[in-house]
Amino acid sequence: MKQSKSMNDTNQGILHRACPSCLGTKLEVIWRKSDVDFAACQRCGMVYIPEVLESYATGQFYEDRTESFYLSDDKLKSDYDPVRFQREWALLRQWVPSGKVLDVGCSTGGFLKGLHEMGDYETMGCDVSQGALNQAQKIGVTVLRAPFLSLPVTEANYDAITFWAVLEHLADPAAFLAKAGSMISSGGICILLVPNLHSLAIRSIGPRYRYIMTEHLNYFSAAALGQMVARVGGWKIERVTSMHFNPVVIIQDALKFREEVPDAERAKLLKRTNRWKRSGLMRPLKAAYRNVESVLSRMLAADNLVMVLRKN
Q: Comparing C-alpha atoms, which of 88, 78, 120, 127 is closest to residue 105?
């Protein structure tokens, strides 16, 4: 495979990228899945897809799957389940007890709907999927229709901007972080959540893990994410942790390798997981699960890496 070219070079619908963390161009292919190469940067170790279909970069891929995934019955029920965003709500409320919050990549609005009901928050969201925004608006979420990078910087008065499972989908995540810096108030909080390159799941089963997938363009370690934050500038890292742990996924993927897990199956499992969280019969197992997740979180080995930033 050829080494990466400029971010702006295209060739037959392909975008060639340098390392999103350090902009390095020397790489080594470490995985191949669904006919796509996943490479490690030889300078900083970040893993990413160096050759990206333009439909991912423009967001058209996500618009096209709105009806089949984002608006499917199982996905909507999961998004609006009271247990769905418990950890995310708790984390944001810890750092921002009230104020104006923008959720980038808000999808159908599940996170913002629950947050708005919890306290004195002015909430709004943006997303590349207009169909998902229509659904969010239908349940009362204020939405911004323009692409995030096109939003006017004159509205630089947000107390918090959140990227829940968004940066891994972006061809240029640093540009989104820089834009957030221009939109947020001095001292405001930005929260990043991305798949964790050093999670137990990836360490144990590697590319068999279902969330190593072609739509996930970037795989950050804590060091690589911190390096990107430093390169963008203007932020102080307040906290680095990890959260979420799904042993069912690890077991299923270890036993059966699949290039891609269908969206419908992923949505069904999310719905089933939420049901287990609510079940009183699962209380003994939930206690053990929380202990395991707590240990993994402290080791930065849970499924998702989380970074809390404060604007300087």
A: 127
Four-residue CA torsion sign, 47, 53, 57, 62: negative
Let me know if residue 74 belongs to a domain: yes
Quote the number of domains for the chain. Answer: 1
Residue 49 lies in a domain: no
Q: Which domain holds residue 113?
A: 63-311
Query: Which helix (DSSP H) or strand (DSSP E) does residue 143 occupy?
Result: strand 142-144
53 falls within a domain? no
Tell me which residue of 187, 142, 186, 148 sits closest to 167, measured CA to CA: 148
Token pair of 199, please? 């999670």
DSSP state of 196: B
Query: Are 52 and 11 in contact, with CB atoms under 8 Å apart?
Result: no
Lookup result for tokens 């247990």: 83
The verdict on residue 280 lying in a domain is: yes
At 127, phi and psi to the nearest 5? Answer: -165, 160
What is the per-residue pLDDT for 7?
39
92 contacts 191 by C-beta, under 8 angstroms: yes
156-178 residue pLDDT tens: 799 999 999 999 999 999 999 99
Q: Give the count of beta carbons closer than 10 Å to the beta carbon of residue 106.
A: 27
